[in-house]
Design brief:
Elements (H helix, E strand, L loop, with lengths): L2 E2 L10 H11 L11 H21 L6 E4 L2 H16 L5 E5 L4 H11 L4 E5 L9 H7 L4 E5 L13 H8 L6 E5 L11 H4 L3 E5 L10 E5 L25 H16 L1 H19 L6 E2 L10 E5 L5 H11 L1 E2 L15 H5 L4 H4 L2 E5 L6 H33 L5 H22 L1
Parallel strand pairs: 1-11, 3-4, 3-5, 5-6, 6-7
Antiparallel strand pairs: 2-8, 7-8, 9-10, 10-12
The structure holds pyridoxal-5'-phosphate.
């Protein structure tokens, strides 16, 4: 069985969540809007899921809207607040490092006359709360800043941002807490946000289920028209089993948070100190204000997609941390915003641990990652030297990324035949 270090992409469904869901996938299959016994039983399950998710986030049950995942919840938050605020203003403030479900949504809104301000971040991927405040004008209707980044694990100062936003009237504050929810205390009142997104599959709940917290009194227009479900904020027959599974997984994640966080921090430290020994490899993201189990690096001159392919063949599942597909030259918008040059950003690697990750797996993973990085770096240096001789000039960054691809394929083949 390969080692799984891609928990930021998704996690396995935990047994307790599956067991909580099973009755609603079998005997209690009713439509929660039906008035008969089957419907009432489904409704009771859904009501309880609202209560449990709300309790875990410090909210009230009516403030929770179940969705089909983080993407839908982010779309609902951003579009819903934008359209509801349109009569008052058109300015939306966000950052350059948001997940595409926020980043692409604001770009879509731009086509309808909304003005988008994308704030820069520092070398660690952090936005400055002063920059948020400086960007606010009387036309600002929405501020959307993620709580923790999915590529580099950096935590944003949301409570400080909220303190600045609250100095002005009528601005809706949204945070995407999809990556943060399993590992950080996510209390909507401590964070002082109006809208907050979570997704069940990041904390061992089912895929395709998410929730949006909507503070009572927040102006937000539904983005799906139809029935009266979720108090008219999200039409469509509810996924009761999904909601119940999400509630069970979230409750457990919150109860185990301190213990899981401490253990993952220790394992990540072991892993990163091993990877740091490889010449030229740099850690990305904030050194301290970061998710406990997310380790991210750049290996300049190498290709992240090819590195992950080689690691997969060697028995380790991980990712580049960006939407970049192997073989493509597209670089991460997050690393670009953190001002990594393209030739460095192309060598991105993300190893994300989860509650089920063991110390033995990390010891083996550290060895595999160090070995693969060293092999690829050495082959890349060798190829670059050969290429320089052939070209009769030093190798340029563009040539270097081409050699990285060739090297990765070599390494992958070598790893596969080594078993
Ligand atoms: C920060 C962040 N926001 C939103 C999403 C989208 O969530 P979902 O996959 O549930 O649509 C993800 C998923 O990777 C994420 O990491």
């Amino acid at each position: 069985m390969p080692i799984y270090l891609d928990n930021a992409a998704t996690t396995p469904l935990r047994r307790e969540a599956l067991e909580a869901m099973l009755p609603y996938l079998t005997e209690q299959f009713g439509n929660a809007s039906s008035l008969h016994t089957f419907g009432r039983r489904a409704r009771a399950g859904l009501d309880e899921a609202h209560e449990r998710v709300a309790r875990a986030l410090g909210a009230t049950p009516r403030e929770i809207v179940f969705t089909s995942g983080g993407t839908e919840a982010n779309n609902l938050a951003v579009k819903g607040a934008a359209w509801a605020g349109k009569a008052r203003g058109h300015r939306i403030i966000t950052t350059a490092v948001e997940h595409h479900s926020v980043g692409h949504t604001v770009r879509y809104l731009e086509k309808f006359g909304f003005e988008i301000v994308e704030l820069p971040v520092d070398r660690y991927g952090r936005v400055d709360p002063d920059d948020v405040e400086a960007a606010i004008t009387p036309k600002t209707i929405l501020v959307s800043v993620m709580l923790a980044n999915n590529e580099v694990g950096t935590i944003q100062p949301i409570a400080e941002i909220a303190a600045r936003v609250r100095r002005y009237k009528g601005i809706v504050l949204h945070t995407d807490a999809v990556q943060a929810a399993p590992y950080l205390a996510v209390d909507v009142n401590a964070l002082d946000v109006d809208l907050l997104t979570v997704a069940a599959h990041k904390f061992e709940g089912p895929k395709g289920v998410g929730a949006l917290y909507v503070r009572h009194g927040t102006n937000m227009l539904a983005q799906q028209q139809g029935g009266a479900q979720e108090r008219y904020r999200r039409a469509g027959t509810e996924d009761v089993a999904g909601a119940v599974g999400m509630a069970a997984a979230l409750e457990l994640a919150v109860a185990e948070q301190a213990q899981t966080g401490a253990r993952l921090r220790e394992l990540r430290e072991f892993l990163t100190s091993a990877v740091r020994t490889v010449d030229g490899v740099q850690e990305t993201g904030h050194p301290t204000d970061r998710l406990p189990g997310l380790a991210s690096f750049v290996a300049p001159g190498l290709h992240g997609g090819d590195l992950t392919m080689a690691l997969d063949l060697a028995g380790l599942a991980c990712s580049t941390g960006s939407a970049c597909v192997s073989g493509s030259n597209e670089v991460s918008h997050v690393l670009s915003a953190m001002r990594y040059p393209d030739e460095e950003a192309r060598g991105a690697l993300r190893l994300s641990l989860g509650r089920t990750t063991t110390a033995a797996e990390i010891a083996e993973a550290a060895d595999l990652v160090v070995r693969t990085l060293t092999q690829q770096r050495d082959s890349s240096a060798r190829l670059k030297a050969q290429l320089a001789v052939a070209l009769g000039r030093p190798v340029a960054p563009a040539d270097a990324s081409a050699t990285a691809s060739v090297v990765a394929t070599d390494t992958a083949v070598a790893e596969a035949s080594a078993g």
